[in-house]
């Protein structure tokens, strides 16, 4: 269905089994070479999407091998859903021009772009009163400007091509709660939550949906880095969580697939928490 049909409230023409299908959909995932980004890229490819994983060039612990191996051995999950694939590209989300060029390159190769997951992000644990200016600038550049530049680049392509796309911003539970030494990160994630709502208002008339996902603490290299500094932290944080533990990246698959697909066609401007009840 084109934008017109979506805006006219077109009745559902797809059976439930196809509701989550991403066959013939093209996606961009920033920070897609490891952690949550890679997990969500793999999930979308399993449901048939062609997924471009964008990351900084050759970071030492990028899981290039896993991406490549998976791309080579992509299982044919279901004949009805078809085969997806992963592609890799380099880019820096803080560079507006580079993100525009990345979206252009995808459209040039695939003819379209339907889904973006603005996932690239960093964390810092620094006391408020000591926060160096360059660190604060860096976290806002990557976690806030980088999310905007991703949404802009992809949103402009969707608008130009008349594609009723889905843009998903990875925020955090920390965007809604406060804790000591996480001010920079928490501030950046609050901005992502507001950005999601504002983009959703502006892009809805163009048929483009924008939603945020707010994960709780999830085991990735990001949390590993924080936990290395303080080994007792995981137990302390888990004790504050109703489910008593950290999440796994694969536990974000369901909500991301729902938001990426037609299954969530009347959902925009929403934030979905996946945080064990935190
Ligand atoms: P990881 O550190 O494992 O992955 C982050 C990815 O972002 C890496 O691939 C990293 O690349 C990439 N990246 C960083 N800066 C840039 C940049 N300038 N341009 C392009 N890519 C970049 O983190 P997670 O998987 O844990 O986090 C993914 C998202 O989820 C983040 O936005 C994070 O804030 C959010 N989140 C994570 C939670 C958690 O507990 N893990 C909880 C809530 C939210 P490189 O390999 O080069 O460093």
Features:
Rossmann fold; 7 strands; binds NADPH dihydro-nicotinamide-adenine-dinucleotide phosphate; 278 residues; single chain; 9 helices; alpha/beta; 13% strand; seven-stranded parallel β-sheet
In DSSP terms (H or I, runs of 4 or more residues), the helix count works out at: 9
Question: Which fold does the CATH topology refer to?
Answer: Rossmann fold
Basic shape: globular
Structural class: alpha/beta
Instruction: For the largest sheet, list the strands in their spatial order.
Output: 3-2-1-4-5-6-7
* Overall strand count: 7
Hetero groups bound?
Answer: NADPH dihydro-nicotinamide-adenine-dinucleotide phosphate
Low-confidence segments: 76-80
CATH architecture: 3-Layer(aba) Sandwich
Taking all Cα atoms into account, the compactness measure Rg is 18 Å
Count of separate structural domains: 1
Q: How much helix, percentage-wise, in residues?
A: 40-55%
What profile does the largest beta sheet have?
A: 7 strands, parallel
In CATH, what is the homologous superfamily? NAD(P)-binding Rossmann-like Domain
* Percent of sequence in beta strands: 5-15%
Average pLDDT metric? 90
The helix/strand order is HEHEHEHEHEHEHHHE
Termini, distance in Å?
A: 38 Å
Give the helix/strand layout.
Blueprint: H1 3-7, E1 26-30, H2 35-46, E2 50-55, H3 64-72, E3 85-90, H4 96-110, E4 115-118, H5 133-161, E5 166-170, H6 183-203, E6 209-215, H7 221-229, H8 233-239, H9 253-260, E7 271-274
Parallel strand pairs: 1-2, 1-4, 2-3, 4-5, 5-6, 6-7
Helix pairs in contact: 2-9, 4-5, 5-6
The structure holds NADPH dihydro-nicotinamide-adenine-dinucleotide phosphate.
Family: Belongs to the short-chain dehydrogenases/reductases (SDR) family.
Organism: Mycena venus
GO molecular function: oxidoreductase activity, acting on NAD(P)H, oxygen as acceptor; oxidoreductase activity, acting on the CH-OH group of donors, NAD or NADP as acceptor
């Amino acid at each position: 269905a084109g934008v017109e049909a979506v805006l006219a409230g077109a009745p559902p023409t797809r059976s439930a089994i196809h509701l989550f299908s991403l066959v013939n959909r093209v996606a961009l995932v920033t920070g897609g070479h490891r952690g949550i980004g890679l997990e969500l890229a793999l999930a979308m490819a399993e449901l048939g999407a062609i997924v471009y994983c964008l990351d900084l060039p050759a970071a030492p612990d990028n899981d290039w091998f896993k991406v490549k191996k998976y791309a080579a051995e992509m299982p044919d999950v279901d004949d009805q859903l078809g085969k997806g694939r992963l592609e890799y590209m380099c880019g820096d989300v803080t560079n507006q021009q580079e993100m525009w060029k990345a979206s252009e390159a995808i459209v040039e190769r695939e003819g379209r772009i339907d889904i973006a997951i603005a996932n690239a992000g960093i964390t810092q644990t620094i006391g408020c009163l000591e926060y160096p200016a360059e660190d604060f600038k860096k976290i806002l550049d990557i976690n806030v400007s980088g999310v905007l530049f991703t949404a802009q680049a992809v949103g402009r392509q969707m608008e130009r091509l008349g594609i009723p796309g889905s843009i998903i911003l990875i925020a955090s539970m920390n965007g809604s709660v406060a804790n000591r030494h996480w001010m920079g990160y928490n501030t950046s994630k609050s901005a992502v939550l507001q950005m999601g709502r504002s983009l959703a208002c502006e892009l809805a008339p163009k048929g483009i949906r924008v939603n945020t996902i707010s994960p709780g603490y999830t085991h990735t290299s990001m949390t590993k880095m924080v936990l290395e500094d303080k080994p007792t932290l995981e137990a302390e944080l888990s004790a504050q969580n109703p489910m008593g533990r950290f999440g796994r990246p694969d536990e974000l698959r369901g909500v991301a697939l729902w938001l990426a697909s037609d299954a969530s066609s009347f959902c925009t401007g929403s934030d979905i928490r996946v945080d064990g009840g935190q």
